[in-house]
Each structure stands twice: as C-alpha cells, then as structure tokens.
Amino acid sequence: MLASRLGLTMDEATFQSFNGLKNEDIFPRFLGRELSRAEISALSDEKEATYRALYAPKLAPHRGATELLDRLRAAGTKLAVASSAPPANRSMVLDGLAWSARFDAVVASEGLRGKPAPDIFLSAAERIGVAAAACVAFEDAANGVQAASAAGMIVVGITTNVPAAALVSAGARFTASDFLSLPDELDAMLPR
Q: What is the pTM of this model?
C-alpha cells in the first residue's frame, strides 16, 4: 500500500531485507535518499497504522508460544522481549495477547542501534541479568537472527515467513515451524 503510493515495488526479497529493522533504517534505504526526521516520522506513522489495522483482527499467538512461555515461566526462567517494533505495535501485541506480565523486560530499539546490530539483544540480556551466551533467542527475521547471533546467543529461527535455510544462513542454530515443533536437542536444553 505505502510502497505503491510511493511508486515503489515491495517484493518478497525487499520485504525480507527490511524485516526486523527500525523505520529510521528502512526508509532511507528503501527510498534511496536521506530523509528528514519529519519525513521518516510521517512515513513511519502511515506504515505502522496500516500494519496495526491489517494485523489487529488476526492477532493470535503462534502455535505453542503460550505453552512454551508458561513452561519457561513455571521453571523460573527470565524472559525478555527485544523488539524493533514501535511502541504502539508492541502494545498491540503484548497487551492484545495479555502477555505483558509474562516478561521480565521489554527492550525496545529506541536509543539503540537497530538490528542486525546486537545492541537490543545485549540490552535485553543485561536487563534480565543473564549472560548473553546463556540466552536462547527466538526470531523470525534474518536481521533479527543476525543480531541475536552477533550478541552470542543461541538462536532459534521460527519459519513463519522465512525459509529455514535463510535463517540458518543468517546464524540460527536451530529452526522450527512453531513452538510445538522444537528440535529435540533444543527442547532438552530448555528448563522444564
């Protein structure tokens, strides 16, 4: 929608190259020029409002996610969200799924370098008091996999919209189609 309005084509390869990035990183690359803060803000507002309008009616946890969160929480595992999504999008998902209280920390990319830089994952590990090397990160975007891998975490690529091979190439140690199909080796590593 926004891409069409701007006279640009958003194909799958372009979408995946931006998936997980901050808007301030996406728009200059997508448009091929520098933009003012006001331009980035206006484009971001339009993009994110469209996303929320399209996604909110379909909001549902990915298969097995709630069960895995419950399992980890019951075992005393510290849990964090490391998100490049704007505040309204994070709220829509976390509040909409009633997941806000499930996490010990929600770390946003505001003030940090965006993915694929590791900053957001390192900050999340620090906030929950766990060494990055002891963390397992679940990611569904190649940029996020790269970021978590660069932070030194074990990364699980969830193949919601990216093929397993691309997530492995980006640095995922494991892949799964959902949270009920975790590889046995990974499942054995996670607390019960």
A: 0.90
